[in-house]
User: What shape does this take?
Amino acid sequence: MRVLGASIAVTLLLVSSAHAQTQLATNESACAAFSQADKALNSTYQQVLARYKSDPVFIAKLKTTQRAWLKYRDAQLDMRYPDFTTSPQALSNYGTALPMCLCTVQADMTQARVAQLRLWLNGQEGDVCNGSIRVGK
Assistant: This one.
């Protein structure tokens, strides 16, 4: 029974090692995901600007909101990792996974923002509180 248990453990170790990545590769992958999310955000933002170009009041509010959202995103990172940009010891405080963590948080927040902005592109049915969100497409 012990031989079988040891054999399974060795097999699991070999299988998991085959899929293991270096921290650098993991960091790069997370930052690539953030880059993709950021491109989607910029594209969606431009589409909303184009769709509502005849509404200057909305456009002004959208631009103000987007600038505020970017500041909010950055403030969230500063709060979560208080010294990641100002301290030379940031890597010793958070480890080599810090770039992955930063990019993951940014990607998650950015994807959520894309979903918010898409409401102005896709519309929303049946909500009397739509405000500037058009009903339907």
Summary: DSSP finds five helices and no strands in the chain. Confidence is low (pLDDT under 50) at residues 1-7, 9-18. The first helix runs from residue 2 to 19. Residues 22-120 form a domain with the Substrate Binding Domain Of Dnak; Chain:A; Domain 2 fold (CATH 1.20.1270.180).
